[in-house]
Inverse folding.
């Protein structure tokens, strides 16, 4: 049995959430920061059935989560393709479509290698990757604070209400599918595990969104990817730029977030079809690439994805809980 | 040689021995009569001490009073004569030859299928010397030697406790090499010992000439960049590992011990760390971490920054690099690859050549090639500096040198073709490989990941000995 620790669970999920934030399109305002952070706490409340279940391990529910993970993995893969345009990757800009294919192909190969190493190894690696990412993000945040322009806080407008931002928060929380599966294979109390993750997520969301508003608030309206722009604009030194460092974080987080979905899909495939031993990760990744084509035009913060996340976090676990309760009652009578 | 029972008739027995040994010149057979029984004393030339065999075996054995039969004679020798402390017996030729070839004197008698052996080893061995590869300032200056029994005594001298168990056994179909499994029986779980023993049972080698022959059997079958078993040539280091609940394997003929399991962080720990003040030891440890990262990544990052991310440099440094690279005829990646390859060639030549010539190689490479290459403009000075820094940093953690060398080239290729993005992708692959390295349930990356706060006391920093004393650490804490 693959068993991961609380910190590893949080690291794997926070990397996915951070990558979703990097790929966030549209404007970010103070309301976005509040809405997304409040949304995290709302998600925490909605995760109660899942926490009581201690993770998903029922085969019918697995089918839903398999589809969900493949779709979310595909979305992330597509977002990586779209966002990487805005980050300077050698060969990509000069190589045209072939350069893009090469980059995506390399990411897919590394994802395949990572996901085939298993959840345990990935959990350990995610912890280290998350630490590196946190250091880089904190550097960006601190350098953003150095050049703090308080006017940006009011200048930045997203054009969405608090309720809409809450929905956006759900849409950006595709990691809820992974959370439902990983919770079942994490050591320790489910409630503590969930609390660590959600508190970490709230801190991450608040830090990234507020830094983006502070740094890129003035140019938010002309920005496609506000978090990427904020990382590029925030510079701690006067005579040298550090935005290439964001490239490192972007690459690492892209690879790990897709690999987490692939590894978990492979894990579910194994649970559903125990005889299917080899090439599970390859099949998962191929399905994700297919899903990326299918969901090409779906934006990351769409309502459909929000509903999917809500189902993965709340609806499906609730149904499973009710069904288990009925079964238990029948068994007793 | 299947287990053939020893022939009781002495003449036929000696004929059989000659036949089985191919009449090998180093097998010496001395026939004599003692106690009225025809006997023969066999030994292997050069493997026994002449003075010991004469004084302790030949003299007493030839002065035995009349006996009724060979059985009584052997009983007399075993019960009344204390010829040596190590007195095994053999009843088949396989066991007899193993003893003979291990430096035992073997006594055969007419009318018995049993052979008595006496430990009179006296072969030439290297004395205990300072370890060549694990330099130490404050600790002991003793290193393991090629003789397994000497190495066992070096351990016993430092751990005078009955909890230290040393199990001798033989492996290698032809070499019959003595191996010794060492562990503290109160610190190592039985389950782990069972697993290690079952791994060792899979050894079907003809010979065991170095630790490298054994390591693959105690490591995972997966492709691992870094070895999850360590080696040490220092008995004091091995003792500290044993105390921490690790298992060691001594191999006869090899002055290194295998340590199971090995963690990544251990490569950065030396015995000197515990001799200095904690603040200095912590500083040195971070120097080593930095050196490791530099040795792997510095040439790659240099190539990536200069080729694709010049904005990371400040203007002065950028101008300086641009100026020097402008004169170099080759591309940065070719230049770096070339310099690194040249270094590897010189290093290999320095190791393999006799010492006096090795010195000449250093002079030729360092002064002539290096100086001439820079002066002629073939290589830029910053690049040579970067490469030299990376290579020297690699020496700080010599144990990791093989994977570091390969990774340096791989990262250089990744950085040269795809800049920091390529380095990041490769770093992810390497990271997962390191994190997947696990033997007998001990993750190689512990205590970093899975994170163990207590483990950081001897990883991120080096806490005081008093604090560590109360902790009572064993590696079992990291078992998953």
């Amino acid at each position: 049995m693959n068993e991961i620790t609380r910190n590893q669970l949080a690291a794997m999920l926070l990397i996915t959430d951070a990558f979703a934030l990097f790929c966030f399109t549209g404007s970010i305002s103070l309301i976005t920061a509040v809405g997304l952070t409040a949304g995290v706490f709302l998600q925490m409340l909605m995760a109660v059935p899942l926490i009581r279940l201690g993770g998903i391990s029922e085969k019918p529910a697995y089918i839903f989560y398999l589809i969900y993970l493949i779709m979310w993995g595909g979305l992330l893969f597509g977002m990586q393709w779209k966002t990487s345009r805005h980050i300077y990757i050698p060969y990509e800009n000069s190589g045209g479509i072939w350069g893009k294919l090469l980059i995506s192909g390399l990411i897919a190969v590394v994802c395949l290698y990572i996901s085939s190493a298993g959840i345990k190894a990935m959990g350990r690696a995610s912890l280290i990757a998350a630490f590196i990412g946190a250091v880089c993000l904190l550097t960006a945040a601190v350098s953003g604070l150095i050049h703090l322009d308080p006017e940006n806080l009011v200048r930045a407008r997203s054009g969405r209400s608090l309720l809409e931002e809450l929905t956006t928060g759900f849409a950006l929380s595709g990691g809820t599918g992974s959370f439902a599966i990983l919770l079942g294979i994490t050591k320790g109390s489910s409630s503590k595990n969930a609390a660590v993750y959600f508190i970490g997520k709230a801190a991450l969301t608040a830090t990234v969104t507020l830094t983006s508003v502070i740094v890129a608030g003035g140019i938010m309206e002309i920005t496609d990817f506000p978090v990427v722009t904020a990382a590029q604009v925030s510079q701690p030194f006067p005579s040298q730029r550090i935005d290439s460092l964001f490239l490192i974080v972007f690459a690492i987080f892209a690879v790990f977030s897709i690999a987490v979905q692939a590894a978990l899909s492979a894990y579910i495939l194994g649970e559903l079809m125990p005889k299917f031993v080899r090439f599970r990760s390859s099949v998962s990744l191929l399905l994700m690439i297919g899903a990326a084509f299918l969901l090409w035009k779906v934006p990351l913060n769409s309502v459909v994805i929000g509903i999917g996340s809500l189902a993965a976090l709340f609806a499906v676990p609730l149904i499973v809980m009710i069904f288990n309760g009925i079964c238990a009652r029948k068994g007793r009578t | 040689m299947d287990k053939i029972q020893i022939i009781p008739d002495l003449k036929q027995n000696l004929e059989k021995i000659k036949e089985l040994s191919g009449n090998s010149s180093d097998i010496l057979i001395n026939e004599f009569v003692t106690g009225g029984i025809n006997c023969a004393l066999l030994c292997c030339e050069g493997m026994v001490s002449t003075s010991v065999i004469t004084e302790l075996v030949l003299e007493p054995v030839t002065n035995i009073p009349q006996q009724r039969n060979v059985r009584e004679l052997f009983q007399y020798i075993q019960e009344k004569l204390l010829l040596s402390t190590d007195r095994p017996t053999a009843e088949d030729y396989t066991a007899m030859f193993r003893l003979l070839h291990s430096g035992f004197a073997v006594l055969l008698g007419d009318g018995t299928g049993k052979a008595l052996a006496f430990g009179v080893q006296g072969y030439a061995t290297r004395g205990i010397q300072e370890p060549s590869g694990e330099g130490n300032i404050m600790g002991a200056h003793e290193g393991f030697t090629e003789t397994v029994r000497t190495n066992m005594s070096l351990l016993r001298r430092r751990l005078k406790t009955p909890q230290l168990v040393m199990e001798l056994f033989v492996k290698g179909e032809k070499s019959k090499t003595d191996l010794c499994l060492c562990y503290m029986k109160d610190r190592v779980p039985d389950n782990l010992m069972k697993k290690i023993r079952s791994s060792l049972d899979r050894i079907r080698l003809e010979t065991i000439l170095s630790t490298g022959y054994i390591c693959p059997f105690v490591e995972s079958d997966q492709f691992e960049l870094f070895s999850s078993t360590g080696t040490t040539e220092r008995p004091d280091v091995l003792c500290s590992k044993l105390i921490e609940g690790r298992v060691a394997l001594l191999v006869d003929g090899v002055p290194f011990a295998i340590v199971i399991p090995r963690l990544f962080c251990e490569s950065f720990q030396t015995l000197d760390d515990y001799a200095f003040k904690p603040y200095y030891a912590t500083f040195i440890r971070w120097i080593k971490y930095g050196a490791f990262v530099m040795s792997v990544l510095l040439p790659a990052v240099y190539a990536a920054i200069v080729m694709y991310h010049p904005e990371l440099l400040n203007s002065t440094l950028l101008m300086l690099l641009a100026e020097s690279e402008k004169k170099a005829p080759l591309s940065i990646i070719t230049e770096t690859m070339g310099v690194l390859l040249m270094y590897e060639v010189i290093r290999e030549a320095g190791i393999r050549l006799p010492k006096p010539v090795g010195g000449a190689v250093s002079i030729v490479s360092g002064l002539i090639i290096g100086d001439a290459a820079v002066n002629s403009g073939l290589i830029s000075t910053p690049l040579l500096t970067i490469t030299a820094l990376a290579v020297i940093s690699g020496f700080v953690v010599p144990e990791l040198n093989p994977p570091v060398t390969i990774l340096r080239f791989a990262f250089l290729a990744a950085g040269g073709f795809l800049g920091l993005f390529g380095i990041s992708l490769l770093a992810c692959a390497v990271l997962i490989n390191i994190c997947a390295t696990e033997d007998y349930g001990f993750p190689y990356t512990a205590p970093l990941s899975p994170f163990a706060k207590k483990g950081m006391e001897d990883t991120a920093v080096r806490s005081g000995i008093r604090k560590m004393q109360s902790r009572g650490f064993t590696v079992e804490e990291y078992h998953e």
